[in-house]
Amino acid sequence: MTSTHPFFDVFTTEDSIDFTFSSTLENIDEVCEQITNYLRFRIEGIEKQLFPINLVMREGLTNAVRHGNAGDPEKKVRFMLTIVNNGLLKLMIEDQGNGFDWRKQQIEDLDEDEDHGRGIIIMETYFSRYSYNEKGNILYLEKDITP
């Protein structure tokens, strides 16, 4: 049975913002908008880094909704962003899915015509570090943001 009221909860502190929301693409748009505003308010000079932050964040959240939770709006996604000493962003994205073999995904060659499977490449390009929990349903990301 589908809920008529998608779940969306946010908790903010001075240096972190934590979302728990129903697995819908619309909620990803809302999270990205709130994160962008939060970062603009909290970190002077962040503007130039907002594109790569949003790109990687959106990629991770979309994977959690589409693949992890199979687009099921009854399942939840948790996303947390923490600012460490105004020089490091830490992100955590968790879905309620079965996880995946991220180690295998790291080494697979992609066909140039593929329209999916580029998430790890995007994360490696724009963020300093990434890792997954053993199960493969929690993604951890770090980005150095010192000017």
Architecture overview:
The chain is an alpha+beta fold and 147 residues long. It is built from four helices and six strands, in the order ββααββααββ. It has a six-stranded antiparallel sheet with strand order 1-2-3-4-6-5, covered by helices on one side. It is 35% helix and 27% strand. It has a single domain, classed as 2-Layer Sandwich (Heat Shock Protein 90), CATH 3.30.565.
Strand content: 25-35%
Q: Which regions are unreliable across 5 or more consecutive residues at pLDDT < 50?
A: 110-116
What's the overall geometry? globular
CATH class: Alpha Beta
Overall CATH architecture = 2-Layer Sandwich
For the record, the count of structural domains works out to: 1
Radius of gyration: 15 Å
Which structural category fits the helices and strands? alpha+beta
Let me know the number of strands: 6
Q: How many helical stretches?
A: 4
Helix content: 25-40%
Strand ordering within the main sheet? 1-2-3-4-6-5
- Write out the CATH superfamily name: Histidine kinase-like ATPase, C-terminal domain
Brief synopsis:
The protein is α+β, with helices and mostly antiparallel strands and 147 residues long. The protein contains 4 helices and 6 strands.
